[in-house]
Amino acid sequence: MLARRSSLLRILRRRDPEMARALLRAVPFASSLRSSSALHSQTVHLGAAASSSPLGTSLFGNKVGFFGAGNEKQLTGLCGRVWASQRGYRKVRRRAAKSKDRELELNASICIEEDLPDDLEILSIAELLRLNVPMAMKLAFDGLKDATYQTRDTAIDDVGGFQSVELSVLLCNDDFIRKLNKEWRDEDHATDVLSMSQHVAGLKLPILMLGDIVISVETAARQAEERGHTLLDEIRILMVHGLLHLLGFDHELSEEAEAEMEKEEELLLKSLGWKGKGLIQSAYDTKTDTDLRAENPDDRKREGSLRFYKPKFSYIFCDMDGTLLNSESRISLTNAKALKEALSRGVKVVIASGKARPAVINILQMVDLAGKDGVISQFTPGVFVQGLLVYGRQGREIYRRNLEPDVCREAFIYSREHGIPLIAFCEDRCLTLFEHPLVDSLHTIYKEPKAEIMPSIEDLLAAADIQKIIFLDAAEGVATNLRPYWSEATGARANVVQAVPDMLEIVPPGTSKGSGVKMLLDHLGVAPKEVMAIGDGENDIEMLELASLGIALSNGSEKTKAVANVIGVSNDEDGVADAIYRYAF
């Protein structure tokens, strides 16, 4: 269709330059949506059966350029050509006999916008539309003959006066149709279907350039679920609605116009044998509104919609405490669904946490995100214990760093003398000197391994290598006593870090969660530009700086938010899900 317009304009420029200039002014969308390569075609004869012409086959993969807002986009296109007056089969001869009645050629271009990912269902629907659209055009044109409408714009009347009719149908997502809706109608929200007429009344042309129908398959999928039919059914309904708009029907003019268009929709769908009511009646039945501004006031994708978008990142690195976990140390169902949806779209989610790996597995098991197809297992990569234990491909350990025994000894002496509980993290074990409610909370609330009570400091130090130690106290005690004291006492022998206000962690010097993430990326051969990272604590700063997009949740520390590219909503507002739906696709 679009390539034919270019050819037509070349002819008009030679024969009638003024008419060519008028046509260019009248069809802005045609000049912005044009073919960058010749489309293959297929000839189909409507009737009880259909046959393919040996002249060519319509294939996916043809490229059509869309130039909008100064940016060229690529669309996948296919074109179906239908001879409307022909019915059934006819005998193939070397030379076709001349017919006194000229056949009206119906050309339908089916395009898929480039930002819509490859999806078998959508590709299958596009292939069906290649035949369905010309069939709907044929029946719609037949319905105009000898019909008397009170409200239809009759700018398109005698279709038989043209040699051919051109129509394009574009399948896209909500982002694309929202931008188009803003540009064409100055309405900044997504919608289900837009129709843009290219017909110029008064120009005597051999081709009727009917126009363009743009359908959001994202909105169509949502409406199909609400209305209890398939995505194909809904797209057909939207296509019929858009086609009738191009033929002069407009339900927004008056109640009479709405009734007339509604009747024509239902008649056309019934004649085609397609399921579903017309779009007008469906909207009334389900009490849905095509104005989606109240539901989605910004660029955040909806739950379940990620199949209609390509991922911007290959990996999402995510912290646990204060980030994926809410203030009750639980993963919300909304966060869990977002992670599952991201995984289903091929994005790899990697945990980077101060927690030990068993604790993370235990927590994610509760929302069915641990195991072979989940976020974590014994065989998946991850960064744990503040980057002191890093696991690579197949979950194999690629890095381990232990804390100096002298630092550990001094800390446990301090713990025993002051009665402040201290936990030693030793790979998959936790060790301590005495029982305490805060020690129990580390297991019951934070799901860390249950601490083993050791009889003495020397027994504890001899039991296993220690990667880090954690003091547990009230937030005020950590801030006013523990942190100042141990920042000075450790000197260059260790670093003092905080992930949450009521814990103080002492780790080996020169190590961090960020360094562990960098080591893992190098091991996996992943560039930082492929990574989005989400965190909240000071121990997440290096990780957020390393990633292409670093997101600090609003509940995070001021230092962390200062280095982030984006500040998201809090961990109690499903901050991880919001970040995924807003920025990852």
Automatic annotation (TrEMBL):
<dbReference type="InterPro" id="IPR020549">
    <property type="entry name" value="YbeY_CS"/>
</dbReference>
<dbReference type="InterPro" id="IPR023091">
    <property type="entry name" value="MetalPrtase_cat_dom_sf_prd"/>
</dbReference>
<dbReference type="Pfam" id="PF08282">
    <property type="entry name" value="Hydrolase_3"/>
</dbReference>
<dbReference type="InterPro" id="IPR023214">
    <property type="entry name" value="HAD_sf"/>
</dbReference>
<dbReference type="GO" id="GO:0004222">
    <property type="term" value="F:metalloendopeptidase activity"/>
</dbReference>
<comment type="similarity">
    <text>Belongs to the endoribonuclease YbeY family.</text>
</comment>
<dbReference type="GO" id="GO:0006364">
    <property type="term" value="P:rRNA processing"/>
</dbReference>
<keyword id="KW-0862">Zinc</keyword>
<dbReference type="InterPro" id="IPR036412">
    <property type="entry name" value="HAD-like_sf"/>
</dbReference>
<dbReference type="InterPro" id="IPR006379">
    <property type="entry name" value="HAD-SF_hydro_IIB"/>
</dbReference>
<dbReference type="GO" id="GO:0046872">
    <property type="term" value="F:metal ion binding"/>
</dbReference>
<keyword id="KW-0255">Endonuclease</keyword>
<dbReference type="GO" id="GO:0004519">
    <property type="term" value="F:endonuclease activity"/>
</dbReference>
<dbReference type="InterPro" id="IPR002036">
    <property type="entry name" value="YbeY"/>
</dbReference>
<keyword id="KW-0540">Nuclease</keyword>
<dbReference type="InterPro" id="IPR000150">
    <property type="entry name" value="Cof"/>
</dbReference>
<dbReference type="Pfam" id="PF02130">
    <property type="entry name" value="YbeY"/>
</dbReference>
<protein>
    <submittedName>
        <fullName>Endoribonuclease YBEY, chloroplastic isoform X2</fullName>
    </submittedName>
</protein>
<keyword id="KW-0378">Hydrolase</keyword>
<keyword id="KW-0479">Metal-binding</keyword>
